[in-house]
Amino acid sequence: MSQGTMLVDTYRSEGIRRVKLVFTDIDGVMRGKYISLDKFSGVAEGVSGFCDCVLGWDVNDQLYDNAEFTGWHTAFPDALYRIDLNTERRLKEEGDIPLFLAEFVSEDDRPHPICPRSRLQSVIAKANALGFQSHMAFEYEFFVFKETAQSAADKGYRNLIPLTPGNFGYSALRTFTLSDLFNELMDYCEDHDLPLESVHCETGPGVWEAAIAVDDCLKAADKAALFKTLVKAFFQKRGMIATFMAKWSMDYPGQSGHLHQSLVTKDSGA
Question: Do 238 and 156 fall into the same domain?
């Protein structure tokens, strides 16, 4: 029995009726949709189509004016995608429905020329051919605000109220006073196969930093992309918002993402 068939049988036995798929767009933002279990059953072992506009517009859904791969000149056709069945996660806050990552593929089943996940796999394959494998870990800094998406928009994204005032880098006090929130975030990430090595306050009002546990290159990249989306969802469900902008205000320190990489030989692991 194939992996896809086994998954479908499991979901049906559990009463699962739909699956969520997510893709990484050209800017590393997660795009996605729900599909019915019947649809999943038909595409789990093959390919399906998804509008390739996500490879030709920005984070505000505005078309890039210099894109050659897709645009009005191509009429935004569907691009083929394949679900990576090894990326299954269960969404506990959505009745335990499955979440999968997908990637675009070319019509000849070769890696897609500009899909970020496909491009990464091509780089990994080159490294493997040279006898190397990569282990990676990402760290992200992000601001948390006592705002909603609507209140921030109503303010024109100015004068936003941070979760906490003042500069409290590595504050033990904040971890005690906000212990419920810190622990909920770490549990939430672990529940989605995103174990965090650490979380702490950074310097600046409402700034947090999280270190994602190390993994092999592709899994680490998947986790890094998912982390940003899941963190935003986590805080929005609690009446707050989080931003990963490099610098949201000239009045406060910027924030960044750090990438740690160990390149080791496949034979010795050294």
Answer: yes
Q: What is the domain count for the chain?
A: 2
How would DSSP label each residue in 193-232? Answer: T--EEEEEE-SSTTEEEEEEPPEEHHHHHHHHHHHHHHHH
User: pLDDT for 163-173, tens place per residue?
Assistant: 999 999 999 99
For residue 80, give the nearest of 48, 126, 54, 111 by alpha carbon: 48
Inter-CA distances, 139 with 136, 208, 260, 265, Å: 10, 11, 8, 24
The Cα 188–Cα 151 span in angstroms is 25
User: Do the Cβ atoms of 113 and 107 come closer than 8 Å?
Assistant: no
pLDDT at 55 over 80: yes
Which amino acid is located at 265 in the chain?
A: T
pTM recorded for the entire structure = 0.93
The pair of structure tokens assigned to 154 is 């109503």
Q: What is the structure's pLDDT at 88?
A: 98
Amino acid at the residue 263: L
70 and 37 share one domain: yes
List all residues 6 or more positions away from 60 whose beta carbon is below 8 Å from its beta carbon. none
pLDDT of 115: 94
